[in-house]
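Ticket opened by: R.M.
Priority: normal
Category: complex prediction / small molecule

The reporter submitted a protein together with adenosine monophosphate and asked that the result be attached to this ticket for the collaborator who will pick it up next week. Submitted input follows.
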Amino acid sequence: MFSVEEALERVLRRVPANATERVPLALAQGRVLAETIVAGCDLPPWAGSAMDGFAVRSADVPGDLTVIETVAAGKVPSRVVGPGEATRIMTGAPVPAGADAVVMVEDTSSVGDRVTVRVSVGPGQHVRPAGSEIAAGRTVLTAGVVLGFGALGVLAALGRATVVVYVRPRVGLLSTGDEVVEPGLPLGPGQIWSSNLHALAGLCRDAGAEPVYLGNVADDPAALGAAFSRAMRCDIVVSTGGVSVGDFDHVKGVLTDMGVSIDFWRVAMKPGKPLAYGFIGERPIFGLPGNPVSCMVNFLQFVRPVIRTMLGDPKPFLPVVSAVLAEPWTRRPGRPELVRVALSFGEGGRVVASVAGVQGSAHLLGMADASGFLLVAGDTTQLSGEVPVQVFDWSWTAGAGPSYRWAGGAG
Ligand code: AMP
Ligand code: MG
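Result attached by the on-call engineer:
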């Protein structure tokens, strides 16, 4: 029996390198950057005005000045601002030569080509110097960054229309079992609808991979062999069910007959003990247990880090945070356990963990309510207070509801 750490270490020993592709910026959100982005130009490219107002020589104000021209955003000044002169300027327009500051329109009054500036300003006031946001030659984003809207804005500001990202691994998903039927089809006697394929597809998308549905396969070696052959066009293959020691658990035998070097592991964690893991060529193959919760737990612990690593993410593991247990929790000692917990913010913004539903390996509903796993060591029998929680879903952190008030007020 392997510990979770040992199994994970073995899985990550041999992760295939993934390809890169160039995508338009509009399709780049959430992708992992595969190039270093160096600013090719200054940002802003020239000294610009941060205000609507008048470009002046700071030594001339306060005072009365002659307005020599008007420069809108997108236009360029044609005149040098001399002593006693000003240029009417809009936000985002280039500051004319000769001027070293901009006075806000609110601090002036003008009639015809005359303007009275009522305030004094220092050099540089309301001027954005060239390169003040990003200087040419500066490294602004490095490979491995997950592109969010802020990064997309930076790329666009630097004139990039496309960006090189890691290719999403295609994950072939296969469920096995004579009893398993796709939702939408009628159930025969002794049959159940397959939950695993849809849960796994969601897990794949969440990890940044592209799920490929390969459907349900009967507990029949020939059918399984054919299905695994079809799966070989994917970058990773994941099957569920058929990896236990039942009479109809054929996954290992079929893969071995196909020349796949496959290990059959018992991992010391609850839920989710059996795990088959191997390679065909460079392609990892995971045989996950059929029990719906074990299947998801195994995916999150072992398949997800492989996907994230293939995606070029230098931090491929789910984060573990410190949370406060809502109620003390007890159990009999045994295997290390991943207890499904719902998460919320408590007093002072602390993360509160509440045990979610019945904890059996077939109890799906707890998984729907849960956002993380409370990590319990094998010898632990009771827990309260601060506990480690591995977080796999962050949707509970979003939004603040109608009671939201910002302490800053109206200013
Ligand atoms: P197995 O690993 O094939 O022995 O299956 C263990 C348990 O998981 C059995 O109760 C199966 O009926 C159930 N199971 C297997 N595959 C699925 C699936 N795709 N969706 C839901 N339950 C499944
Ligand atoms: Mg089965």
